[in-house]
């Protein structure tokens, strides 16, 4: 049958979304901008702190002078949502890489038929990796305003947190698409 010669759409969707997801999650994990603290009392009006899960940077908006590796005087990095994110985000990245390797083996390119079971397993791994990065991103967002910050300062969500969210969602959608390969595998 000729239908077996083409790569199924669900596999293509999974293999497009998941690499995009890992790039966004990687950027979100490494970039120090899960939240921005501004209008800090007794500090220059244009000073902004960018806090990630590994580093805090301070930047003067007027001159773009940026300095990372700031001392954590308020115990920000000791907070549970930050510590959990430090464990779960890298775990998610490793699982995503593993899932993509298994997906590549399952989807084929060098063989006549896709391995539906293998692609389905890859989908489950990728779905799990997306959930593992979604949990800390969601928890951090929920606790964003309770994490320690100078009294009276203004807080906003940083781009790293947004990218982590988007990456997680793309991995979950891509993983779900690949798990649909199980359906085809069961029909054979």
TrEMBL record:
Its membrane topology: Multi-pass membrane protein
InterPro entries registered for this protein in UniProt: Claudin (IPR006187), PMP22/EMP/MP20/Claudin (IPR004031)
Transmembrane segments: 12-31, 88-110, 117-139, 159-182
Subcellular location(s) of the protein: Cell junction, Tight junction; Cell membrane
Keywords assigned by UniProt, alphabetized: Cell junction, Cell membrane, Membrane, Tight junction, Transmembrane, Transmembrane helix
Domain of life: Eukaryota
GO cellular component, one term: plasma membrane
Leader peptide range in chain numbering: none
Keyword Cell inner membrane recorded: no
Molecular function terms from GO: structural molecule activity
Keyword 4Fe-4S recorded: no
Family recorded in the similarity comment: Belongs to the claudin family.
Protein name: CLD23 protein
Organism: Galbula dea
